[in-house]
Amino acid sequence: MMPVANRVVVCLVAVALGVAELAPGPRRPRVVIVGGGLAGLSAAVEARRTSDVHVELVDKEPCLGGSSRLACDGISVLVAPADGGLSARIWPADGYELFVEDALRAGAGLADEALLRMLVRQSANVPAFVHSLGVRLGAAVRAPGHCRTRTLRPVEAVHSTERTLISALKDALRADPSVRVHTGVRVVDLLLRSDGSLAQVHFSPVAIVDPSAPDAPCKLEVPLDLCAAGAVLLDSSGRRFVDELAPCAKVAEAMLALPSRTATLLVDAPAVQAAGLANVLRSYEERGLVRRALGLDAVARTLGVDPLVLETEIEAYAVAQAWGVDPLGKTAFPTRLELSAEPGREAFLMSVTPALRGTLGGLRIDEDARVLAARGGPIVGLFAAGEVCGGVHGADCLPGNAVLECLVFGRTAGRTAALAARAAVAFDRATDDGER
């Protein structure tokens, strides 16, 4: 293994730490990025946009994308793009503080407020960056745990937000001769280390249970936009048991209290259209992950529950929608679920369960994405973003904020690393000239 050269900047963007054995290149600023998930890809693109550096992107998997490929989140931002383009309207003046308050509440006192405020502040720049990759963003929804409508996803995307962004970022890097990608390479060591904690973990409350492999350890997420658009969660008897728009940790806790630890997510066609997820659901249906039913009786038969119990539950939910008073505490009803009123109305059903989404603890960073040593000072030439970092979100991460973190801090790490690498090479050249 080659040691990390003094003038090579290392950017950690995944849980694997270290350096890869790379062929020595010309005397040119070089950034080594360890991890090819959403944060790593964002870092690579931003590094190249910032300075004429050479980028070495290393990932232990045979293909890029990391665990980001399995997620199905939106992007929560302060600015809503108009028609998916660069023109935008900003949320009301109190939107910034409300966004921060929502994130701090989810963090339960464990979040780094300075980093969270930077995350929210920089979110206003994310739609333009996404648009520069050729990805159009659609209308915003109010995701679980958020008090305002602020979560976006790509327009007419066949795949999840994460997969759509990964594909666009890979296309950008593929066209750049100054980027080398090393897949199937496991990093085993770094010369410098920093203490961290993996105490916090993040659960997705609604991961899909594959009927053909219910015990499979790896599961796809249900887009939380479905809950935001009006989906309901039912227990084995056909009754609701939780506010579907509550913070993810609360929904996961309620689901884990069920005897089977699984529930059924029920959503009708208008809600799917409102969320812009028709293509995504169709792809899930082709994989046998989604069942379709026409009308309330068909839903009851599919679930194996008493039709009268289900009808009573749906009617009670309709009353809650009409009056805005829900025994389970729900206060926002984006669309009306009216299966009992329309016998032929199309509905979609998925078996869901909480699943571990990622870690929220790890390396400590500052607002420039520099890795901090145990004594608090930054480690020279070492930057981090993504799941390898800790403290940004605290105890839990709001929907849309994980993707946001990858884009904001991934780009910050790439930008700062590129500038540091350029400055280091310039210093070396000046020193050599002086010695001559």
Task: Characterise the protein shown here.
Its cofactor is FAD. InterPro entries: FAD-dep_OxRdtase_2_FAD-bd, FAD-oxidoreductase_2, FAD/NAD-bd_sf, Succ_DH/fumarate_Rdtase_cat_sf. Keywords: FAD, Flavoprotein, Oxidoreductase, Signal. This is FAD-dependent oxidoreductase 2 FAD-binding domain-containing protein. One of its GO terms (molecular function) is oxidoreductase activity. The protein is an alpha/beta fold and 436 residues long. It folds into 2 domains: 1-200 and 360-436, FAD/NAD(P)-binding domain; 207-356, Flavocytochrome C3, Chain A, domain 1 (Alpha-Beta Complex), CATH 3.90.700.10. Helix content is 34%, strand content 17%. It has 12 helices and 15 strands. The protein has helices at 38-50, 95-107, 113-122, 126-132, 161-174, 225-229, 248-256, 269-275, 278-286, 296-303, 307-323, 401-435; strands at residues 8-12, 30-34, 54-59, 75-76, 79-81, 88-90, 151-152, 179-183, 201-208, 232-234, 263-268, 291-294, 346-359, 370-372, 378-384. It has a 6-stranded mixed β-sheet with strand order 8-3-2-1-15-14, covered by helices on one side. Strands 9, 10, 11, 12 and 13 form a 5-stranded antiparallel β-sheet that branches. A hairpin with a 5-residue loop joins strand 14 and strand 15. Helix 1 (38-50) runs parallel beside helix 5 (161-174) and helix 2 (95-107) packs across helix 3 (113-122). The longest helix has 35 residues, at 401-435.
Summarize the structure.
This protein is an alpha/beta fold and 436 residues long.
Descriptive keywords:
five-stranded antiparallel beta sheet, six-stranded mixed beta sheet, 436 residues, 15 strands, single chain, FAD/NAD(P)-binding domain, elongated
